[in-house]
Specification:
The protein contains 1 helix and 8 strands; from the N terminus they run αββββββββ. The chain has about 120 residues and is mainly β. A 5-stranded antiparallel β-sheet has the order 1-2-8-3-6. The protein has a 3-stranded antiparallel β-sheet with strand order 5-4-7, with no helix packed on it.
Length: about 120
């Protein structure tokens, strides 16, 4: 599983730590407490997780900006006052503090979750 990359000044981190495939990430689910998400990579303010909700999506607003990239499955994504259909390959941005969740999704819904930036989100 990916770990924090080396902080070598020349950026020459171990190449194995620069790639995480979906199967590798999914092998971490569910977590010991039944969690449907797992951290797979972290460097600086960047945090990448795999998320595969089952049944319902209990998310609450987060304190940092985040991006979702749909890997598998279909459904709807509620993002503030908006609702959008989602399918593999879709990119979804959620500003910090915004109510969001997946609804009416298939049992194979799997997404990369990317948190970045400061607490409270970026202001630009």
């Amino acid at each position: 599983m990916a770990e924090e990359a080396s902080d070598n000044p020349d950026g020459a981190a171990d190449a194995a730590r620069r790639r995480v495939d979906v199967a590798e990430a999914m092998a971490r689910l569910p977590g010991a407490g039944g969690e449907r998400f797992a951290e797979v990579f972290k460097r600086g303010s960047l945090l990448v997780e795999i998320y595969a909700p089952r049944g319902t999506d209990p998310q609450r607003p987060h304190t940092r900006d985040e991006v979702y990239i749909v890997v598998a499955g279909r459904g709807e994504f509620v993002n503030g006052d908006e609702r959008h259909p989602v399918a593999p390959g879709d990119f979804l941005f959620v500003p910090a503090g915004v109510v969001h969740r997946f609804e009416n999704f298939t049992e194979d819904l799997t997404v990369w979750v990317i948190f970045y930036g400061p607490e409270g989100g970026e202001r630009q």
